[in-house]
Amino acid sequence: MKRRHLGIGLLGILVAGAGAFLAIAWEREIAPIDGAREASVQDAALVKQGADLAAVGNCVVCHTAPGGKPFAGGLALPTPFGTIYSTNITPDPETGIGRWSEAAFQRSMREGVDREGRHLYPAFPYDHYTLVSDEDNRALYAYLMTREPVSAQAPENELPFPLNVRMVLAGWKLLFFREGTFEPDPAKDEVWNRGAYLAEGLGHCSACHSPRNLLGAEKKGGSHLAGGESEGWTAYALNEASPAPIPWDVDSLTHYLHQGWEARHGVARGPMAPVNANLGTLLEAESRAIATYIVSLMGEPTAERRQRAEALLSQEQEHLPGVAAPSAGTQTVPAVHDPADRGATIYAGACSTCHDAGRPLPYGGLRLDNSTAIQGPTPANPINVILNGIPAPEGERGPIMPGYAGALDDGQIADLLAYMRRTFSDRPAWDDPADLIAEARARGEENGQRSLATGSQAPANPSKRETSW
Fold first, then answer.
1. Domain count along the chain
2. Which of 139, 203, 405, 459 could form a disulfide with 394 if both were Cys (CB 3.0 to 4.6 A apart)?
3. How far apart are CA 153 and CA 105, in angstroms?
4. Of 364, 252, 259, 379, nearest to 313 (Cα)?
């Protein structure tokens, strides 16, 4: 009898718990509106403000598939749990957000819930967008509702059970999501607070630059901006763990964010390139605000790191082809190009003429002893650049580097990486990069086939005059 009562009691607790969860997880539908009418009453100044904010958020990159119309969605976003496809955020009434009221849009940004009451996957980074002010959301809404309506249905997400059940996301939110707008730090000035608002909110920098736990949420505390991964690229630490050989300051990071390159830090590439392209359309003050905030998180470099940077800077005028990176407190020593060292031979033939020529960026090659990629924790970024190069910006002058996917096999790339790591850094050798090279090569081939299939290539600079878990 006692066991029976105990069983009934446990069942009652389970039912009550399930009911409580459903009560928390359930979200009401917001009534549809006439989007065409809504678009006709938007103020031009508000639309312009929204365009600038959309550039900060890099919205067009994630919501545009290769060969597709801007903001029409359909871009595949690979995650460790499956593939999520970005949604259509044009004002099309059937497949986009044409029936969304401003209240529905505000809720999606603030709470991660769509107009119909469905929980959104955090590939849409509402854990950052919740910080955005009502005023800025109003401007974003005005901008999106005045875009060209495009009828385009995104493919169904490719997720296993139970992750394909959106109600499960309510549990994820209970664990990891905290709703609330940005609160300025009264101890900081206006520029710092503007940078924090942009970087942590619409800019969602830590979505790529922070590590994630087993359930796909960003690790917090000391792991914030401690480095992460995005689309097969390493997103370097932006806190005191930054591996940049020459520490960033506000001026250098401002230039990099606004121009897409910096003389002593290199050229933006991979997923970072469209971020810079979008920021480059805004006033430089926005990039400076973000730089002010990020550099403050990096803190003052250690004495050892400062000494090494000074040694690098002191050698700039003496840098010659084949010269190795100077270690802190030592003299520059020519690298030995031993014919038996295949990596050295490949470097001399394929890399030295640009990277050791002394021609300044953005049209010359970065001195590799200044390269964060060569100092970084993994060789993922050098592998991607060696294989695929740096494509020229579409329709304008800009930095370019050829790819060597067709010229070098995997073993040659591994030898080249080993040579560059030991010659241009003072870090330990990377682990065997064979798997990373194979994955990057396959990814590059897949992207190339996709571009051929769509008849177009995603622009390197998608927002000029007009980039997850």
1. 2
2. 459
3. 19
4. 252
Peptide bond into 122 cis (omega under 30): no
What stretch of H or E contains 15? helix 2-25
**Can you read off the two tokens belonging to residue 204?**
């969602």
Q: Are 112 and 119 in contact (CB under 8 A)?
A: yes
- Residue 113 and residue 63 share a domain: yes
For residues 346 and 342, give the distance between their C-alpha atoms in angstroms, rounded to a whole number: 6
Same domain, 122 and 196: no
Region of residue 455 (phi > 0: left; psi between -120 and 50: alpha; otherwise: beta): left
In a domain, 7, yes or no: no
Q: Are residues 171 and 203 in the same domain?
A: no
Residue 354 contacts by C-beta under 8 Å, 6 or more apart in sequence? Answer: 364, 365, 401
Based on the fold, state whether residues 347 and 438 are members of the same structural domain.
yes
Q: Which two tokens stand for residue 38?
A: 């809504």
Q: 122 and 246 share a domain?
A: no
pLDDT tens, residue by residue, 412-456: 999 999 999 999 999 999 999 999 999 999 988 877 655 545 444
Q: Which residue has the tokens 């430089």?
A: 284
Q: Is the dihedral of CA 277, 279, 282, 285 positive or negative?
A: negative
Q: Domain containing 51: what range?
A: 30-176
Task: Say if 465 falls within a structural domain.
Answer: no
Give the chain's count of helices (H) and strands (E): 20, 6
Phi, psi (deg, nearest 5) at residue 427: -95, 160
- Find, among 65, 74, 62, 202, the residue nearest to 140 by Cα: 202
Residues 158 and 194 reside in one and the same domain:
no
373 in helix, strand or coil?
helix
CB contact at 8 A, 195 and 293: yes
DSSP annotation of 233 reads E
169 and 210 assigned to the same domain: no
Rounded CA separation 67/450 (Å): 9
For residue 51 the two structure tokens come to 């365009």
DSSP 289: H
What confidence tens digit (pLDDT) does each residue in 201-241 have? 999 999 999 999 999 999 988 899 999 999 999 999 999 99
Output the CA–CA distances (angstroms, integers) from residue 112 to 59, 120, 134, 155, 382, in the order listed. 16, 5, 15, 20, 36
Name the domain boundary from 148, 176, 204: 176
| pLDDT tens digit sequence for 61-90 | 999 999 999 999 999 999 999 999 999 999
CB atoms within 10 A of CB 108: 23
Q: Position of tokens 């103020």?
A: 43
Asked whether 275 and 457 are in contact (CB, 8 A), the reply is: no
